[in-house]
Amino acid sequence: xxxxxxxxxxxxxxxxxxxxxxxxxxxAPRNGRGEYQRPQSEFRHRIDGIYSPQPNRYRLYVGWxxxxxxxxxxxxxxxGLENSIDITILxxxxxxxxxxxxxxxxxxxxxxQLYRLANPGxxxxxxxxxxxDTQTNSIVNNESAEIVEILNSEFNDHATHPELDLxxxxxxxxxxxxxxxxxxxxxxxxYRCGFAQTQTAYDKAHTELFATLDRIEDSLATQNYLCGDxxxxxxxxxxxxxxxxxxxxxxxxxxxxxxxxxxxxxxxxVQKIYHLPGVTxxxxxxxxxxxxxxxxxxxxxxxIVPKLPDMSYLxxxxx
Length: 319
Known about the structure:
319 residues; alpha+beta; Glutaredoxin; Glutathione S-transferase Yfyf (Class Pi), Chain A, domain 2; 2 domains; six-stranded mixed beta sheet; globular
């Protein structure tokens, strides 16, 4: 069979490009240079005032595939808050345009409906993680960086491991510096690659991503964790991106210069954190693969989900 005539190719490409741009404008807001601009989280309350640190009062809404939600699950496990902070695992539903609840709650079938229950008329993004107060049926916080801080410090009276401090004062300056760099170039950097809408935007994000990974590789050659020999929230925030890197970002998001397995120090670092108590149970590789390839239609319009890549490097324990 001959390839289609050029006019069919050109017409199809033009139509698809227009449709793709419309879909991407909803999925991934961009600036004038085609660079992905992640919207700010809107609910930023802390555990104070009407919110007191009571056990079994709060519920985390998360999705297995989301790296931002994964952070909260890791801190919950490390602190031993499983019996104090309940969770609801949502399902990514492309047809519903967001996260679906496993069972109806308060008459809601989707996370978007739950957001509107707490805030009638709400039209913003309905994202995970979301920390919910069951006493007032209100949203406490939906910013992952703040939720992990809350879990680290506000529920020690109800934690199995209250002695674990993932944000020690003595390391705060170093922790903040790493968080700033890693958020822009790695955590959000992989999305800046995958959601770039111009070649220039992609090239810039790709260069910055791998420059930071090279820097992290050098740093881990002389210390166990980012801020020295103590695990911190900076490591948790990095880990949930790295654990997805070879699985989805390397291919689907075009972050293809190197794999995590090609960085000896980073590979050992990911192994080490993966085998910390409770962390392995927060990693669902099959769901991660299915949600990214199955639900991000503009990036994978055929909907074909690849087989799980070789993740055996995680089996060997890091030191």
